Target: non-specific serine/threonine protein kinase
Amino acid sequence: MAGVNPMLAGVLAISCCYSLYLAVAQTTDPTEVNALRAIRNSLVDPMGNLHTWNSGDPCTSYWVGIVCNSSANDHYLHVQELFLLNLNLSGYLAHELGLLSHLKILDVMWNNISGSIPKEIGNITSLELLLLSGNQLSGSLPAELGYLSNLKRMQIDQNHISASIPESFASLNRVVHLHMNNNSLSGQIPQELSRLKCLLHLLLDNNNLSGFLPSELSKLPILQILQLDNNNFSGNTIPDSYVNMTELRKLRLRNCSLQGRMPDLSMIPQLTYIDLSWNQLEGSIPANKLSDNMTTIDLSNNFLGGSIPSNLTSLPSLQRLSLENNILSGPVPAFIWRNTSLSGNKTLILNFQNNSLTEFSDVLNLPANVTVLLFGNKICANGSQASKFKLCQPQIIPLEFGNSTNSDEYRDSCPTNLGNEYNQSSPILGSCVFPVGVGFRLKSPGFSYFHTYEDDFKLSLPFRAYQLHIDSYAWEEGPRLRMSLKIYPNNSKPFNDMEIQGIEEKFRMWQITLPSIFGPYELLSLRSPVQDSPTANRVTKLAAAGIVLGAVTGAIVMSVVITVFIMRKLSRNQVSKRHSGQTSPIKIDGVKWFSFEEMALATNNFSSSNQIGEGGYGQVYKGILVDGTHAAIKRARQGSLQGSKEFLTEIMLLSRLHHRNLVTLIGYCDEECEQMLIYEFMPNGTLRDHLSAGSKAAMNFSRRLQIAAGSARGILYLHTEANPPIFHRDIKTSNILLDSKFAAKVADFGLSKLAPIPDAEGTAPDDVLTAVKGTPGYLDPEYFRTNILSDTSDVYSLGVVFLELVTGMLPISNGKNIVREVNHACQSGKMFSMIDSRMDSYSMECVKKFMSLARKCCRDEMKMRPSMSEVVRELEVIWEMNSESDTDTNTDTTTSHSFSLNSVLHDPVTTSSFHITTKPYIRFDDNSGETPTSLNPVRCLPIRR
Ligand SMILES: *[C@@H]1O[C@H](CO)[C@@H](O)[C@H](O)[C@H]1NC(C)=O
Ligand SMILES: *[C@@H]1O[C@H](CO)[C@@H](O)[C@H](O)[C@H]1NC(C)=O
Ligand SMILES: *[C@@H]1O[C@H](CO)[C@@H](O)[C@H](O)[C@H]1NC(C)=O
Ligand SMILES: *[C@@H]1O[C@H](CO)[C@@H](O)[C@H](O)[C@H]1NC(C)=O
Ligand SMILES: *[C@@H]1O[C@H](CO)[C@@H](O)[C@H](O)[C@H]1NC(C)=O
Model:
């Protein structure tokens, strides 16, 4: 094969996305190693949090807070993330930071680092998050930071940074969040910032900024929060153009020395929060009605005159209106709380103290949850009706006090000295676990009182699979809302490392999208159930494990890529170059490449009426391709984009798999920051749809059995025929699709991991250590505990699917686990009560056998479960028994014989060199005391229901 090498080099040069050396040499780029050493030497680490940085290789020896990735262009690992949040570090930031040329995230928040921001950070063009909040940094902002063309988030708030904002920041084309509040910035706000087309939140409050407010800021097309309070724009006015900021939610100009009139903000449709207090605004309050979303209006401490517009009476979401210390006159509009929804505990505070108001006619009608403050008005003159009531007393506006609902009721049984806690929100009484503790802060919330929004807030956090508890919250200067969150596992089993990592990542990578009313958030601290090792350490270990696996996968993908390329080169002497994006031009036989335009066309521009599903990965659309083919198009959500490597892995895998019980991949799209997979369309949707209570026609037992066998056959193919073998890892009823004849097809290989490959002697490890992924309720408990994945983890998930098929239940409902419920019912002789009552007629014996098989699949211990081929064989037995008993009862002609059991086994299982042979043989006798089943076909007795 001497001729291959130059060609290989050529292929590598063309593909330039993967390195063949990945699996061979895994060390960190030496330049970066030296840079990290310099960074370490300039930091002071009193707690020894960086002790792992003293030896070994950063990427492969688990240095704290370092996450690496392999590179497209060389064979080194590169530091992609530096995560040193809240580690008690002081010292300064070394200029060698600029040498971490692959860095995407630089996070040193909440330490005591001083000195200035090294200008060399501006050299890291890959940087996406620059997070320096909460340190002692001083000096000026380097203009070089403006070169960070990929930066999405700059948080330098709560430091001592001075001098002016560089005009070069106008080049931060992608920046969404610019948080520079609570520093000592001075000078004029550059009007050039109006070029930041992606800017959502501009926080510049609590600085020494001066000059005028640039009217050009109104050109920021999506700006939602403009927060400039506590600066000194002495003598200047609020630009008229600001009334045109159509996306604005929050405008804070408190204590800015502003003069002139208050702008009419009624044209801003979603405005929720205005604070213009402590200025010298004069004239009257505009009479037009503000947005229905207004929660807070603070115009206090100005020189506003005239009367209170009656339109302030019709704001349904209002929580707080403060007009204190102005020169308002006339009456308080009648029923000023009219139209405000006061349901539940909603609070409404109307503060009119120290004006010249003359009348308040509704004294006696005041609802209990409305507070009106009238002290210092003419209304309260001695002898008036109002003066007899408390509302004329000088009062301090009630603050909202955070709840703290820790109950000690079950504490006794909980060994809290180990850091465990009783989980108050758990449906399982007395469950005692160590929660993940998160210090969390809303930096600029759009409301004044949280309790109305607390439920929305909880629902917006992506932790439905767990129990989320707001331990306490408190308002802080700003106002900002600080909270202590606790996240508990959904059952009494402690979190495993991967789950914790998943939770942490959501916070520290800003993967949580909150409704705009909550504004930006920040992570203050993380406390994880592993006590002896700091958070970052564990993150690094896991990340490193990911790298090793990634490298192996990468090498396999690469070898396939190379093979494909070489074969194409030999046969056609050309390499397809159809790609317009930066990704490598890869043509995979049997899989079509589609452009983004073609996909937009097929799905009616991804219209919501074409959407047929949604998963963690993104949305699924129904589409019609140019040739008329119906297709299901799986579009990765922005932010959940896989690396090209994972994406290509999935395509490579799928393109080589052909089986009637697997969904076929038609093509893919990978351009313009979009990743899509195009599958054959399955007209009958997911199995879950047909089992849910809402489904129109309940399926009979034969059809359910047919689906069970089809799914098992598809998975058996993945385990034994795919080369290398594949563990699915996310088998669930929503991943089993049904074609027009209700034949089952297994879908979604997004979580697939290649199974271990036999070594030279032909032996293979039985299992592979890997990241726990999957869906709660379907997760193999042993895999969950140990992170060790084996083919029987898929057996477990499939067993859960079988249980759903026979019971119609969800894997987890109301905190109850289907496996536990069924086992419990069977052991107490109530198996019959579990059977889906919507199944028409069936043979009791067959259903029993099926149930018993399902339960064996769901045994806690891997070794006690049958292998996939045994599952398929047993289903054959049940099928034959069922067909014999079924001939006279089955009225559904579409199912009965479209399926032949021989076809279940038509794929030989012997080609696998490790799968079957290394498994201990498991007999199908049930040790739970049920009738032993036999592998000989037995005629089942039909019963009618
Ligand atoms: C940063 O880039 C500039 C050129 O833009 C170069 O002169 C300088 O040496 C670089 N600094 C570092 C630390 O790489
Ligand atoms: C607001 O925008 C409209 C339309 O673009 C424009 O005609 C108007 O002059 C703007 N108002 C201000 C005060 O800039
Ligand atoms: C209240 O607001 C509406 C809509 O902005 C406006 O048409 C109306 O004139 C206002 N009412 C008063 C009394 O000013
Ligand atoms: C404003 O109110 C509407 C209707 O209640 C709601 O759909 C929208 O989400 C709200 N906007 C904000 C920013 O809260
Ligand atoms: C109202 O507040 C009380 C105590 O502050 C609380 O117990 C209750 O659950 C709240 N009700 C609603 C609907 O929020």
User: Anything to note?
Assistant: The mean pLDDT is 77. Residues 240-241, 243-244 surround 2-acetamido-2-deoxy-beta-D-glucopyranose (ligand 2) (CB under 6 Å).
